[in-house]
Design a protein that fits this description.
Length: 609
């Protein structure tokens, strides 16, 4: 490990991320004013400690000072934050060759009428017809060696970054999109620059084209400034489950590279192992092994987040990597079983395991993954040390039991006729069902680095609040369409699952409306599934359920941050803040209206069968 470098502690007051920001996304109206404000951003960026990326809150406080000094309105805040961030990251961008940069362009720069381009899995497949500025920007970037993508949204960008194809992002987007990107990309320490569009109109918009050209032509030269980044740890966590790496670290007993789709030739004896390996290597964010490796790193001087991080991560012992992998196998096993218990149709955008292979086979694969998780730790007891291995196995077993208790409570409640539920009971289920996975990932990382008793209370309190807040947000997302995972709006209600939203509605609705809501959840209700969801949504809004739920998220987020405020060392504190900001992603809220076309009967019907 390299020696730890002194770092500047940046701890501005943290604020709830759930607030209205539409009024903060004005673009300075004149080019002269935009140039003046960009110069001010450059001056401030030059004074910052470049070893640590500024948090979103720190960035906002700096941006507000720039606006005050320039006597400009608060409405320019979002624009200033993006511009200041770009100025901060420019030296890092310089250190990265052009062919390792991704140039991201938005769909809305195209001409809406008559555009000949089609969309593929990565976005707009530009025909470079010359009818809009996309072709000009793209040609200039590709000439320098950039990889170019015409698409929007951070998920696809993060996927490309984590895959290892590029190391930095430069792009053009509206302030609405850039606000979300800051959460996901900047917080991870991924070098990024952006030129905001001059409006958030999604059709035929415009941009300062000379700024875009300047950004694309940022030269490649050695920069003495390096910023700490989680990129190497994020990549390693995903790479562990690429088929080649997976089979190297955990050699299959029954065979290698078996094609599970070739059913006729699939050996029945090897089938369970093959399905388990296939499920492990296809889909997911692999956030839990990342947490384990990141905690291990934070308590080992944080070397993997420094400039030499790639070589540090490459030298991690196999027993450390396999133990981190165990966390993911337990998680994947719980997903297989949970999908069966909830009758879910899709996972990672494709059919669930039990839909493709049958319930019995899926249960068996889940059981295999559980055994695999324990074996990944126990096989390395000599390298880990007997005491360390025993502590980790005991903690994993305890977490596994609590998760099963939480899921069991949900199932038993679901199968009863009495639909009454108190908010406190729903939160207890969450604390059992969701928090243990975060807790286990944190504890295992700490224990790999050495004795962990000192961190135990902090880990438990932090994980409990993080897990509860995460589950509430997951419940809220059930009321928003999610095309990536083919989520159906209102699935929890139709599936009869106990959620804090349901409990809050029962608590706050008048008796007659409460009885109506309970009737809507019953399978024998005469209304169509679409109408049941529409009416339940109305009742939820009438009871103020969504607003109360967001306040609960705020409460648990604050408690998690209070733990982070006190935890040492600084590297672990920074990681805790990073987890709060990324796990509790609130870039959208449940809207008061819903389009019935999003509730097609063909999508809803399988849930209630």
């Amino acid at each position: 490990m390299i020696a730890k470098t002194p770092i500047e502690t940046q701890k501005p007051a943290r604020r709830s991320r759930r607030r209205k920001t539409a009024h903060l996304k004005m673009v300075p109206p004149s080019k002269d004013l935009r140039e003046q404000l960009r110069d001010a951003c450059r001056q401030v960026a030059a004074t910052l400690n470049h070893e640590i990326a500024p948090s979103k809150d720190h960035l906002e406080s700096l941006a507000r000072k720039i606006l005050v000094d320039a006597q400009q309105p608060e409405g320019f805040l979002g624009w200033i934050m993006v511009t200041l961030s770009s100025c901060f990251w420019e030296p890092q961008i310089q250190s990265i060759p052009h062919h390792r940069r991704l140039f991201l362009l938005p769909h809305c720069l195209k001409h809406a009428e008559g555009c000949p381009a089609d969309y593929d899995e990565f976005g707009l497949a530009c025909k470079t017809c010359g009818a809009c500025s996309i072709a000009d920007f793209r040609a200039a970037a590709e000439e320098l060696g950039y990889k170019v993508l015409v698409a929007e949204g951070s998920p696809i960008v993060l996927k490309i970054i984590v895959s290892g194809h590029v190391d930095a992002i430069v792009g053009v987007a509206c302030l609405n999109v850039l606000e979300k990107a800051i959460d996901k990309i900047m917080l991870a320490g991924i070098p990024c620059m952006a030129v905001p569009l001059l409006s958030s109109d999604c059709r035929n918009t415009s941009v300062d084209e000379d700024w875009v050209e300047q950004m694309v032509r940022v030269p490649h030269e050695t920069s003495p400034q390096t910023t700490r980044s989680y990129l190497h740890l994020l990549r390693k966590s995903a790479q562990l489950f690429e088929r080649e790496s997976l089979e190297k670290l955990v050699p299959p007993i029954r065979g290698s590279a078996v094609d599970v789709e070739d059913r006729p030739s699939l050996d029945p004896i090897a089938a369970t192992e093959a399905l388990a390996y296939d499920f492990l290597s296809t889909g997911g964010k692999y956030s839990r092994p990342f947490i384990t490796l990141a905690v291990y790193d934070a308590l080992s001087e944080g070397a993997a987040t420094c400039a030499e991080g790639q070589s540090v991560v490459a030298d991690y012992p196999a027993h450390v990597l396999r133990t981190a992998m165990a966390i993911e196998t337990f998680h994947k096993a719980s997903l297989v079983h949970d999908d069966i218990e909830d009758a879910d149709q899709y996972r990672y955008g494709t059919q669930t395991l039990h839909q493709k292979w049958g319930v019995a086979t899926a249960i068996n694969v889940g059981d295999y993954l559980i055994g695999m998780g324990y074996r990944l730790v126990s096989r390395d007891h000599k390298a880990l040390g007997s005491e360390t291995a025993a502590d980790i196995l005991d903690y994993l077993a305890s977490s596994h039991q609590r998760l099963a208790e939480g899921q069991g409570a949900e199932l038993i409640w679901r199968d009863t006729r009495d639909r009454m539920l108190k908010p406190i009971d729903a939160l207890k289920i969450y604390a059992l069902k969701t928090s243990p996975a975060f807790e286990a990932a944190l504890y295992v990382g700490a224990r790999l680095a050495g004795p962990a008793d000192h961190y135990l209370d902090s880990i438990k309190t932090f994980a409990r609040n993080l897990g509860v807040a995460f589950q509430i947000l997951n419940d809220l997302k059930d009321w928003e369409r999610d095309d990536d995972n083919k989520r159906v709006i209102g699935a929890d209600l139709l599936g009869g699952r106990p959620t804090v939203l349901w409990a809050l509605a029962l608590q706050d609705l008048k008796p007659a409306l409460r009885e109506e809501l309970i009737a809507l959840s019953n399978d024998g209700n005469a209304l169509t599934p679409q109408r049941r969801i529409m009416r339940a949504r109305q009742l939820f809004f009438e009871a103020g359920v969504f607003e109360t739920a967001y306040r609960l998220v705020d409460k648990h987020q604050t408690k998690a941050e209070e733990v982070a405020d006190l935890v040492e060392p600084e590297e672990l504190r920074r990681l805790f803040y990073y987890l709060v900001d990324t796990v509790l992603d609130r870039t959208a809220e449940v809207k008061p209206t819903i389009d019935i076309k999003d509730l097609s009967y063909s999508e809803v019907l399988p849930i209630i069968k």
